[in-house]
Amino acid sequence: MGAVLKYFLTFDIGTTSVKTCVFDEGLTVRGHANEEYLLLAEKPGYVELPAETYWQAVLSGAKSAVARAGIDPKDIVSISATTQGETFIPIGPDGAPLRNAIVWLDERAGEQAKRLAQSFDAARFYRETGLPELSGYTPVSKLLWVKENEPELYEKTVKFLLLEDYILYRLTGKFVTEKALACSSGWFHFSGDCYWQEILDAAGLDADKLPELLECGQIVPGGVLPEVREQLGLSDSVAVVTGAMDQTAGAVGAGNVVPGLVTETTGTALCVVATLDQPDLDHPARVTLYRHIERGKYLMITIAMSAGMFLKWFKDNFCELESQQAERQGKSVYALFDQIVEVTEPGANGLIAYPYLNGSLQPHNDPNARAIFFGAGLDSKKQHFLRAIFESIAFLLRENVELVEQVNRIEIKEIRSLGGGSKSDIWRQIKADATQRPIASLAESECTSLGAAILAAVALGYYPDVKTAAEHANRVVDWKQPDSSLAALYEALYQKYLSLYPRLKDLF
User: Fold this and answer.
1) Which CATH number among 3.30.420.40, 3.10.310.40, 3.30.70.3280, 3.30.750.24 corresponds to the domain 7-243?
2) How far apart are CA 486 and CA 191, in angstroms?
3) pTM for the full model?
């Protein structure tokens, strides 16, 4: 009898869902599941979710993915997670959350950010943290908001955990975090590789309320709690391995470990990620920097707040008939959208969408920016609105790729498409046409989950290093080449798209 295969269980905990995957030793997906949830937005600028919702989605996703993989859960050798940044949860003395998670999209702490910025100007804050500026989204600002507005809760808090930290805690009972995720916080010292005591002191925050810092891809001592092992049917020896923030994990899964290669992820947000040897921390156009998994390298990340979220918002509010039609046909409503968009003329009959539902990080760093549709007429149909949404994200991609090139004085030679948006052939073609650059898709589109699996596989000795594992696990399987006949059309629309923000910014 041959040796029994072993498996890596991963959780990609996003803004609106948890994607669970089971990978085999060859880093091929054997089973997967997706558990969705609805965010709570009861006040303007407030976005929350009960922490238990994340955990229950993790448990449910694990059981479903393992069942679909058709494996014995005792053959799982590791669990790792990757999550959104900036979402955090206060934990009380009994180990339970003291309030809802404050989600990364939440911008209630704008006033606290402004006051902190008086002591830490943007240029210095960028040099120390790799973050362009203090904002209401930054966890250090949100933490100060909790201290000022919920002081009793703050005093009761034992640990403030980011989302991956919370999942690691529920799995192991340990208060730990990893450094790629910590880069999103505003309290992590980018060059010192430690918590930034100066900003914690300035905010009057207690460093002992933060978890222990670990490296990405590090085994958490102690393994999985007995009660969790029992719930999921896991072996006593299963390891828990720290993952990385979702964009960092996605870069690893896509093989984005060398300069000149860019990945774009069209998920809830649009992220463009470039690997750098040495960033320019004094460049006036400050773009988010994180530590790379690869020592001595950095990730430059542009984050546009709305991408897939824009399409989902349109679906939820205006596409009930299409959702019903897709259900009758036994297909995803997004597959139906692809069909509709593919037969709709490029340029969407002159309609231009501007995708910011909840503010802009890159390229404008404007929390007040909002979505618009420009150019609608009596002959505008629903299909034009759908096509305009697809094209708006393509324009947003072009804008951010050009920003990365400008800041780093480099030429982007290759764009790899990741995330849910990469599964749409027509959306990738529109991106190629709008950017006039070829867009690659990979054998495994869910690179974020794959990145978490790679970190676990390397930690457990199945591969010698991250680069080797990434090259083994993923490859380019398709290119969408730009249609040169559409270059003039999209150039004109793109320039009109670019003109909207400076004309409207004072009206948002």
Assistant:
1) 3.30.420.40
2) 45
3) 0.82
